[in-house]
Amino acid sequence: MRRRVNCVPIIVLVLLTVEVGARSSSKAGEVVLIPLADAMPVLRALPDSLPEALRSLPEAELAGAWPKWTAQRNREIRERLARGDEDTLTNFLLFGTSFTREPRLTLAALDRAREKSGGNLEPDSPVVAAVRKRAEDLARAASASGQNERLEFSRRVLKRNSFNLATDEGRAKAVAYLLQHFEETLRENDRYAELLKAAQLENDRNRELVTRSTLFKTRGVSLDTSWQPNLAIEKSLAALKEKGLLSAGGVRRVAVIGPGLDFTDKEEGYDFYAPQTVQPFAVLDSLMQLGLAKGESLGVTTLDLSERVNDHIARARKRAAAGAGYTIELTLNPAVHWQPEALNYWRQWGSRIGVNVAPVQPPADLGRIEMRALKVQPAFVLRVVPRDVNVVMERLRFDDPDERFDVVIATNVLVYYDLFEQALALQNIAAMLRPGGFLLSNDALVEVRAGALHSAGSTLVSYSDRKEDADFVNWYQNSGPRE
């Protein structure tokens, strides 16, 4: 529910180098599944992390089984989006104001209530009663047709679970479902906290790193996002330039894996503005602010397996082609003691790609919220192109090395996968990066030597005085061509 923070260094597993087989030529940018030749270093180095279907297979039989397994696993990963939708719906239930007059249930309020009750919330507690009332309002609002995108999403999720919102009985069942998932989410968050605590008590740094880096490996893949990691990415890009690892004007092609959709923002949970994606535009602005890219030659490709994210960007591009910009609303909680550079970033980013416009005014009962809004110019909206790619199992295949990316960015994405899947993702990312290009990620990852990605440094950025409100961004450089 809250933006995950990972202030830890990378995990390095030194793998035996094996020769990667040549790939056949294909149409530029075609989406293909990871070939067995690129997966073999991972399969040989992580035998204890392999899924059961592969662990029991002799190596001689892998060639025949690999295409079927990768296609099936690709489908299974995509199916996790449905569970991520349920997490998003729970955030909306707790924080939303567009469907109810009931007060928002903040994370701080939930924590205080649980502390008073000894860690558990009784069914007759005031907090559970408040959640039930909000659930009733959400089910009622979702049953009505309208133009509210969030309520349309809520209706689809509830109908997908076979609730007939047109009847009293169906709405009552939907309310029970919403309450059940709320309670499951609390228990799930407790399990994550227990896992981290257990790993820390073992005083084994590697165990703790592995636990943090794969914390959400069985959780639904969620799209919710927040603005803070974009500052950490900008600081990393600035450091790469300062060290001479990225040259002025040298960045032309960038990929953003899992750009996110601010449906119910992970940090504040507001829903009084339209759903939006922020990171692709923040990266565009940072690259231009730093002089690492020229606007006329810079392009951003988003790689996401979510139809909702891809359609959202496609619709924005269609409007931009007709001359309309893309408005991004940014909220700031003034009660938080923000670090000066975080506050400065929030107030100023976007000046190279858009103009400040009047923000949406929040509902009065939300209290004091600082707001700003940026309208991205249509020309820059059109520089963002969505591609449906599951980076764990898929990649874009390029015939021309010049078409590969200079920088790939993945924040709060790979934590949803286990070590084996993360290692496969790095193989796919390496294949899409030009020689010398960089992956920037705030997840602790397995470094696969045969995949050509190697640690080149890191950046630690603190956003506020809140505990662990920071990001540790690792830089991985593609050390050579992959032919």
Describe the structure.
By secondary structure, the protein is of the alpha/beta class. It has two domains: 81-213, no CATH class; 228-478, Rossmann fold, CATH 3.40.50.150. The protein is built from 14 helices and 14 strands. The chain has helices at residues 36-45, 52-55, 62-95, 107-116, 126-142, 149-160, 168-201, 205-213, 228-242, 279-289, 307-321, 340-348, 378-381, 419-432; strands spanning 11-12, 30-33, 253-257, 299-304, 326-332, 354-357, 370-376, 384-388, 394-397, 405-410, 433-441, 446-447, 453-462, 470-478. Strands 8-4-3-10-11-14-13 form a seven-stranded mixed beta sheet, sandwiched between helices. α3 crosses α6, α3 (62-95) packs across α7 and α5 crosses α6. The model is unreliable at 1-27 (pLDDT under 50).
Quick structural overview:
The chain has 483 residues and is an alpha/beta fold. The protein has helices at residues 36-45, 52-55, 62-95, 107-116, 126-142, 149-160, 168-201, 205-213, 228-242, 279-289, 307-321, 340-348, 378-381, 419-432; strands spanning 11-12, 30-33, 253-257, 299-304, 326-332, 354-357, 370-376, 384-388, 394-397, 405-410, 433-441, 446-447, 453-462, 470-478. Strand 3, helix 10 (279-289) and strand 4 form a beta-alpha-beta unit.
